[in-house]
Amino acid sequence: MAEARELTYIGAVAEATKTVLQEQDNAFVAGEDVAGAGGVFGSYRGILEEFGDRRIVDTPISEEGIIGLGVGAAATGLRPIVDIMFMDFMGECMDEIANQMAKMRYMFGGSAKLPITIITMSGGGINMAAQHSQSLEAWICHLPGLKVVAPSTPYDVKGLIISAARDDNPVFVVLNKLSLRNRGDVPEASYEIPVGEAKVVREGGDVTIVTYSRMVGEAIAAADKLAESGIDAEILDLRSLQPMDTAAIVASVKKTQHVVVVHEAVRFGGLGGEIAAQIQEEAFDYLDAPIARVGAPFSPVPFSPVLEQAYIPNAERIVEEVTKLLGVA
Amino acid sequence: MDLNNETLLDIHLRMVRIRTFETEAGKMAEAGKIPGALHLYVGQEAVAGGIMAHLSNDDWITSTHRGHGHLIAKGGEFGKMFAELYGRATGYCKGKGGSMHISNMQLGMLGANGIVGAGPPIAVGAAFSIKYRNAPNVAVTFFGDGASNEGSFHEAANMAALYKLPVLFVCENNGYGEYTAQANHQAIVDVADRAAGYGMPGVVVDGMDAIAVYEATAAAIERAKEGLGPSLLECKTYRFFDHVGVRGMGLSYRTDDELAEWQKRDPILIFEVRLAELGVLSEAQAKEIHEKVLADVKEGIEFAEASPMPNPDSLLEDVYA
Questions:
Q1: Residue B75's closest CA among B47, B101, B49?
Q2: Is there a contact between A108 and B320 if contact means CB atoms under 8 Å apart?
Q3: pLDDT value for A2
Q4: How many domains does chain B have?
Q5: By the 8 A CB rule, do B155 and B185 touch?
Q6: Does B317 touch chain A (CB under 8 A)?
Q7: Are B68 and B18 in contact (CB under 8 A)?
Q8: What pLDDT was estimated at residue B2?
Q9: Beta strands per DSSP E along A75-159
Q10: What is the DSSP string of A148-180?
Q11: Cis check: omega of the bond before A154, within 30 degrees of 0
């Protein structure tokens, strides 16, 4: 792609959003501090100037009202992009997410359509403590009617936001705070990354690391380290969590026969358990070892940098888990 | 639409349709023919009737768990409604919603709702959509005195006023949040007082008087269409039946005397007296209308009972578009 140039992860959010607003007259952005401030992370910088206050709307700090606005606007013909600044704030709007947005189409016998994109931010690592650092994607993946994507690169950010906005269903785009300044090649043109398709980001034959979002980077660092010991890890970036690309997971497991599932979310009740269950249902006979899981411990995200570093999974812990799994420790 | 004879009769018909449907639905539920819970609208007909007489299919409403009356007044067909209550494939929601989620997008009815207070934010979204498209319509959100204690109502009211959206917040204050009397769930007497906190007009309306409801609505709609923003109408009303089901008397949380007092002001009764005084509708004509509507309701029940159950294969349809 000749036209590709480097963008940051957060720059890709702004570019994708502008692309969507250009492509769809019925699309608008609503959220706290999105217009005048351009988003607290800079996600929407320049959009107010380019599109005006009809297309990007600052809201009160009213998450339930914001999601409700999205639901009502989508059901009546618009294509809202709503921003929930930190996904920790979903507690404030869970009814409109879980009981309204997710279920309206089904409850109405298919007569309603809810093309809503919800952009939100997950993850720790910037000392924001217990209420601004969580990875709560399992909450929303559990709700039939919703789709959930979690991009790991600027390229995926742009493609997945564009796909989410073209989807006629509610799609959560779960971004990651610590990835905001990561840079990567992003084409200037509009493009989609299909919701529901995982991607092998590193080919390998000895073990599969199934992961998503920022942990993809940690998995790559781990794989580099493992290569020094002659272990050849394959990394599968799920990109889409609901629907999940089970076929891609199974294909990789069949190839490597060893799996470690990695996420930043709390291990107990996290998606790792679901992924492990799917693997044992569809590829049990291919496994040479139990499925390993790396996730955060069962505690709130701590504040102190020392504690937080001990809390968040990283390359080192992935290396440990893989070597233990392969019995080469 | 002016309050001419035609409008008066139109409101009356909407109210009789609600009363008759609900009464017969209650009977079918007691006969064990309708699964699940029914929250019946009997006693509150003047509210839905007086408001919906102003609306077209391009105006949106959100409803409550007590939602049949709103859909009927918005033009809902008895057959498809009963079919939904019966859980049949021919129902408005193909049997996937039932009483508590009955809806119809073509009629501008964004659903009854099992969650108290969930509707106002959605109506604000519909009104945002109307304003975004510069359409000459309004959104109306119905909710109860109980729901006026939910944060969702307050967030929605603030946003609607802030953006000057064409929304009517209609509180049907029937004196009880489920089984708890208003005096035991909020320290105010008039929910309309809450409007002041959001910079919108709050009006108390006699919710048993269809004409009063119609007139208050006209003013609120005019304001909304002028771009001046939302209004809160508090319609003081009463449900003649229990929170769920049919029984109205002998309840532990309210007195029979209280019910009897309110029934003296039965909204259909007092409206028919008024219509007779105005020479718009005689007793005999009223009787004829009730009989015709009852026949239509019975036809609706027959349609539902003759309708097929949903195919179990349809279980996973409509989860996603």
A1: B49
A2: no
A3: 54
A4: 1
A5: no
A6: yes
A7: yes
A8: 61
A9: 79-84, 117-122, 147-149
A10: EE---SHHHHHHHHHHHHHSSS-EEEEEEGGGT
A11: no
> Which letter does DSSP use for residue A100 in this model?
I
Together in a domain, A172 and A30: yes
Q: Rounded distance, CA B270 to CA B254, Å?
A: 23
Residues A298 and A321 both lie in one domain? yes
* Probe site for chain B from A28, A29, A57, A64 (most B CB atoms < 10 A): A64
Q: Coil, strand, or helix at residue A292?
A: strand
B180–chain A Cβ distance below 8 A for any pair: no
- Considering CB atoms only, which of B62, B113, B124 is closest to A65? B124
Shortest CA gap B304–chain A (Å): 16
> Phi then psi for B102, rounded to 5 degrees?
-60, 140
The reply to whether A94 touches chain B by the CB within 8 Å rule is: no
Q: Domain holding B105: CATH number?
A: 3.40.50.970
List C-alpha distances in Å: A256 to A236, A241, A253. 12, 22, 5
pLDDT of residue B1: 43
Same domain, A218 and A132: no
* A70 interfacial to chain B (CB closer than 8 Å): yes
Count the Cβ atoms, other than its own, within 10 Å of residue A50: 11
Residue A1 pLDDT > 80: no
Supply the residues of A annotated as catalytic.
132
Identify the burial level of B265 via C-beta atoms within 10 angstroms of its C-beta, where 0-12 means exposed, 13-18 middle and 19 or more buried: middle
Q: Which domain holds residue A103?
A: 7-186
| Per-residue pLDDT tens listing for chain B (321 residues) | 468 999 999 999 999 999 999 999 999 999 999 999 999 999 999 999 999 999 999 999 999 999 999 999 999 999 999 999 999 999 999 999 999 999 999 999 999 999 999 999 999 999 999 999 999 999 999 999 999 999 999 999 999 999 999 999 999 999 999 999 999 999 999 999 999 999 999 999 999 999 999 999 999 999 999 999 999 999 999 999 999 999 988 999 999 999 999 999 999 999 999 999 999 999 999 999 999 999 999 999 999 999 999 999 999 999 999
Whether A250 and A165 share a structural domain: no
Instruction: Identify the CATH number of the domain in which residue A317 sits.
Output: 3.40.50.920
Would the CB atoms of B101 and A108 count as touching at under 8 Å? yes
Cβ count near A103 (within 10 Å): 22
**B320 in a structural domain:** no
How close does chain B come to A239, measured CA to CA in Å?
19
Which of A147, A163, A186 finishes a domain?
Answer: A186
Indicate the burial class of B257 (C-beta count within 10 angstroms; 0-12, 13-18, 19 or more): exposed
Judge whether residue A324 has pLDDT over 70.
yes
Q: How far apart are CA B31 and CA B3, in angstroms?
A: 40
What digits encode the pLDDT tens for the residues A284-311?
Answer: 999 999 999 999 999 999 999 999 999 9
Whether A223 and A297 map to the same domain: the answer is yes
| B283 in reach of chain A (CB within 8 A) | no
User: By the 8 A CB rule, do B120 and B153 touch?
Assistant: yes
Task: Among A186, A220, A239, give the residue marking a domain's end.
Answer: A186
The answer, yes or no, to whether residue A132 has pLDDT greater than 70, is yes
Neighbours of B32 (CB within 10 A): 7
pLDDT at A3 over 90: no
Cβ contacts from A onto B, under 8 A: 145
